[in-house]
Every structure is written in structure tokens, then in C-alpha cells.
Specification:
Keywords: Acyltransferase, Transferase. InterPro entries: Acyl_CoA_acyltransferase (IPR016181), Bact_Acetyltransf (IPR050832), GNAT_dom (IPR000182). GO terms for molecular function: acyltransferase activity, transferring groups other than amino-acyl groups. This is GNAT family N-acetyltransferase. The protein has two domains: about 1-75, Aminopeptidase (3-Layer(aba) Sandwich), CATH 3.40.630.30; about 95-155, Gcn5-related N-acetyltransferase (GNAT) (Aminopeptidase), CATH 3.40.630.30. It contains five helices and nine strands; from the N terminus they run E-H-H-E-E-E-H-E-H-E-H-E-E-E. The N and C termini lie far apart (about 35 Å). It has about 160 residues and is an alpha+beta fold. The chain has helices spanning about 15-25, 25-35, 80-90, 105-115, 125-130; strands at about 5-10, 40-45, 45-60, 60-70, 95-105, 120-125, 135-140, 140-145, 145-150. It is about 30% helix and about 40% strand. Strands 1-2-3-4-5-9-6 form a seven-stranded mixed β-sheet, sandwiched between helices. A two-stranded antiparallel sheet has the order 7-8. Strand 2 (about 40-45) and strand 3 (about 45-60) form a beta hairpin.
Length: about 160
């Protein structure tokens, strides 16, 4: 992971649509949160190898709307570095919590977030069915529900 730089995207940066769409979809929904959130790019040797979008959802809460690492760069600690950056940024902005949602069949992502300390706090049943009009499959499992996860940045009251 040498030479990794995580920086806020500028208006002149090309939007890394393949990464955004790999982690989420459909495109019109991504465009909405891109307008409201902050996009951060992970670069290595001048190449965008990861990205994330953070958005304030409540006065004390920021959410990771989208986080993705290029397939060719997975397993190199880039996702972990971006998650650490998200935690730092949210805390600097006064957040008490950092939230994320992921699919019930997103096994790699579920393990990733839980290793970092996120806990499952809710289920949005049939979220992906409503979003796409049907259930799809991921890891041989029907992708239906959004698992809501949170990480407390300060001790809850």
C-alpha cells in the first residue's frame, strides 16, 4: 500500500463510475448522493484505485454512502485506509456515529465492517427488491435486505 493518497475529489476529477456502480446502483440514486455528499478518492501512482462518498445524515451522524476498491487492488489495505479516513473525517465534523448499509448477502463487506467495529443495528427488509424490482443473487444468496450498521465514535449516552 505504499504511496497511497486519499484526497477529496475536486470538480475537475472524472467521476469513477465503474467503482461507484460496482459498490452501488442505480446511477440516478448515486448522482443524488454525490450532489449532497463528499467524494474522496484513493490514488496510487496517480491512478484512482478506490473511492468513497460520505454524507451527513443527522446532526451527529455521518454515513458511508459508497465505498469501493478496484478489483485489481483489493486485499492491499486500501479499503481499511479509506474506512479509517471516514472515521477521522466524521469525528472531525463532530459526529458521534458513523453508519453504513450493506446487503444481506455481501459477506465480504459484512466481515470487513464488523472487523472494524461496526455493529448491525437494523434491517431494511426487501430494500433491494424495492430498489430494483426483484431480488438478485450475490454469493449464491438472494440479495434482498439492507443491513444497517453503525460505529460509535464517542460512547453513547
Amino acid at each position: 500500500m505504499t504511496g497511497l493518497k486519499i484526497r477529496r475529489a475536486t470538480p475537475t476529477d472524472a467521476v469513477p463510475w465503474p467503482l461507484l456502480l460496482d459498490a452501488d446502483g442505480p446511477r440516478p440514486e448515486i448522482e443524488k448522493y454525490l450532489q449532497r455528499g463528499e467524494q474522496w478518492l484513493a490514488e496510487q501512482a496517480g491512478e484512482v484505485v478506490g473511492q468513497m462518498v460520505l454524507m451527513e445524515t443527522r446532526a451527529d451522524t455521518w454515513e458511508i454512502m459508497n465505498i469501493a476498491v478496484a478489483e485489481s487492488h483489493k486485499g492491499q489495505g486500501i479499503g481499511t485506509a479509506m474506512l479509517r479516513k471516514a472515521k477521522t473525517l466524521a469525528a472531525q465534523r463532530g459526529a458521534h456515529r458513523l453508519e453504513v448499509g450493506t446487503g444481506n448477502s455481501s459477506l465480504r463487506e459484512l466481515a470487513f465492517y464488523q472487523r472494524f467495529g461496526f455493529r448491525i443495528v437494523g434491517v431494511d427488509f426487501d430494500y433491494f427488491v424495492r430498489r430494483w424490482g426483484r431480488a438478485t443473487k450475490q454469493n449464491g444468496i438472494p440479495l434482498r435486505d439492507m443491513l444497517r450498521m453503525e460505529l460509535w465514535l464517542v460512547s453513547p449516552q
